[in-house]
Inverse folding.
């Protein structure tokens, strides 16, 4: 598979790609710059607004606007970043952390987790229900990262990057309850970061310091490697009218200038046609 640069963004820490079906755009964030982006593949135009703090991920709100997981909590806003309302303040222990990856599920809930740079076990993983109640689903998390659901909704996949793999949970679509955590994928190339699940149930996992996105079957068998000309591959999401394009975010943060000189496309937004469509993205129903 050949990846193309669709936006030479030079993002410090590009993350959280999300296809917005109604607007037909890809939303994504630059965590370190605190920017929420809107990329239109039809025109190649990318616009953004500043969240006022680091922002880990973005999701579409079913009633209009967006929901953000930021450095300090969960915020709703209009599509242009105006009309902000803080729903929950969330702190880490020790303090000084931030929200990282997250997404809305197909049943109207929003999931996101936290991390503290340089400190393992200080984060947690949360579920925001449509009624606005926030639940702590996991504690002792080091770097809360990618998540996704099987096509039938009975399995949720989750990455805590420092554990070096992808875990699965039994998931109840009616309640959002999770149980039965087990390891399904061991990563031996870089570190697992963001992920998405295609319409056939395969996992596509971005590899931080791994120069690639890899596809795994639900039982953990590696079936495809998409090479990316950037060391720090952060996440991926299916988009386009038929959800047949895999968009890939990358980062430049933490790399010395001499290293970046050998990967000038680091921080870009990439795209590839993997030959299988994704699942329709969720929206928070609050």
């Amino acid at each position: 598979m050949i990846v193309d640069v669709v936006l030479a963004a030079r993002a410090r820490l590009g993350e959280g790609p999300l296809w917005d079906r109604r607007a037909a755009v890809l939303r994504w964030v630059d965590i370190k710059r605190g920017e929420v982006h809107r990329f239109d593949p039809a025109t190649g135009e990318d616009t953004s607004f500043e969240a006022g703090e680091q922002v880990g991920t973005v999701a579409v709100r079913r009633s209009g606007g967006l929901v953000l997981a930021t450095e300090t909590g969960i915020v709703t806003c209009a599509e242009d970043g105006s009309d902000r309302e803080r729903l929950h303040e969330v702190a880490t222990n020790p303090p000084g952390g931030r929200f990282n990856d997250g997404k809305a599920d197909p049943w109207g809930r929003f999931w996101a987790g936290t991390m503290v740079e340089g400190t393992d076990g200080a984060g947690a993983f949360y579920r925001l229900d449509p009624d606005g109640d926030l639940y702590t689903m996991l504690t002792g998390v080091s770097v809360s990262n990618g998540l996704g659901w099987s096509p039938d909704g009975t399995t949720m996949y989750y990455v805590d990057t420092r554990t070096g793999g992808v875990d699965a949970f039994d998931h109840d679509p009616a309640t959002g309850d999770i149980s039965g955590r087990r390891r399904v994928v061991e990563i031996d190339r870089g570190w697992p970061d963001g992920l998405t699940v295609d319409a056939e149930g395969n996992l596509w996992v971005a590899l931080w310091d791994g120069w690639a996105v890899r596809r795994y079957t639900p039982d953990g068998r590696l079936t495809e490697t998409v090479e990316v000309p950037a060391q720090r591959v952060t996440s991926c999401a299916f988009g386009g009218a038929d959800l047949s394009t895999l968009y890939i975010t990358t980062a430049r943060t933490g790399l010395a200038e001499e290293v970046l000189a050998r990967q000038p496309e680091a921080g870009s937004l990439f795209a590839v046609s993997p030959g299988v469509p994704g699942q329709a993205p969720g929206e928070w129903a609050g």
